[in-house]
């Protein structure tokens, strides 16, 4: 059977995803998230794992450079890639929210400035509500933006809520539940159907 290529997101959920794969019987003895190596093979060589930036995972999968990918729903939504989302792997659970200073009200009639690492998610969410927005793309420490007047609100991920709390911010609206998902290239879903279903089924049984 030919091998399939899996794009795995670097970052917080990489190790727990490898653990989940191992519970499913797919082991990567050589994998180490601190390694500078970017390609790893499963011990049975059925899966070639490429280790890439989270936001790039949907792109690798959409373009067919990887047959499947494991990445957070936040990055799937932000990349707007044309892929199949097949399984919720339930790792890295958090929420995508709109947050701002306590007591901040969102006036639909006024243009809203939003700072975010996820400008596409922010724009799409507010467009659906008919709210006119300007987005400012930041790469981190987003909570600072409303405090120094760079934006009215932020769209960001909340896990424990500590970062918001310590900066005097609060959740204003909830956008989406986030967790890691298995995504699949549309062509590979047909051409490598057997291998992909095998991986999906083993992951499903590990989740149960
Ligand atoms: C993420 C996110 C929030 C924080 C939320 O940032 O953007 O800032 O974690 O977590 P909490 O609710 O548990 O406090 P990250 O740690 O990735 O750092 P960054 O600001 O440099 O992007």
Chain-wise SSE layout:
Blueprint: E1 4-9, H1 14-23, E2 39-41, E3 47-52, H2 57-63, E4 68-72, H3 73-79, E5 84-88, E6 94-101, E7 112-116, H4 119-128, E8 133-137, H5 144-147, E9 153-158, H6 162-166, E10 169-178, E11 180-184, H7 186-191, H8 193-207
The structure holds 1-O-pyrophosphono-5-O-phosphono-alpha-D-ribofuranose.
Residues 140-143, 156-163 line the site of 1-O-pyrophosphono-5-O-phosphono-alpha-D-ribofuranose.
Description of the molecule:
Helices cover 31% and strands 31% of the residues. It has 208 residues and is of the alpha/beta class. The chain has 2 domains: 4-92 and 179-207, Periplasmic binding protein-like II (D-Maltodextrin-Binding Protein, domain 2, 3-Layer(aba) Sandwich), CATH 3.40.190.10; 94-177, Periplasmic binding protein-like II (D-Maltodextrin-Binding Protein, domain 2, 3-Layer(aba) Sandwich). The strands form 2 sheets. The protein has a 6-stranded mixed β-sheet with strand order 2-3-1-4-11-5, sandwiched between helices. Strands 8-7-9-6-10 form a 5-stranded mixed β-sheet. Helix 4 (119-128) links the parallel strand 7 (112-116) and strand 8. The two termini are 27 Å apart. It binds 1-O-pyrophosphono-5-O-phosphono-alpha-D-ribofuranose. The site of 1-O-pyrophosphono-5-O-phosphono-alpha-D-ribofuranose has 12 residues, from strand 9 and helix 6.
Number of strands: 11
Shape: elongated
Would you identify the regions where 5 or more consecutive residues have pLDDT less than 50?
none
Give the N-terminus to C-terminus distance in angstroms: 27 Å
Structural class: alpha/beta
CATH topology of the largest domain: D-Maltodextrin-Binding Protein, domain 2
If you compute it from the alpha carbons, what radius of gyration comes out, rounded to the nearest whole angstrom?
19 Å
CATH superfamily of the largest domain: Periplasmic binding protein-like II
Order of helices and strands: EHEEHEHEEEHEHEHEEHH
Total domains, how many?
Answer: 2
Main sheet specs: 6 strands, mixed
Strand order of the largest sheet: 2-3-1-4-11-5
- Fraction of residues in H or I helices: 25-40%
The name of the CATH architecture of the largest domain is 3-Layer(aba) Sandwich
β-strand percent reads 25-35%
Bound molecules: 1-O-pyrophosphono-5-O-phosphono-alpha-D-ribofuranose
Number of helices: 8
What is the class of the largest domain in the CATH system?
A: Alpha Beta
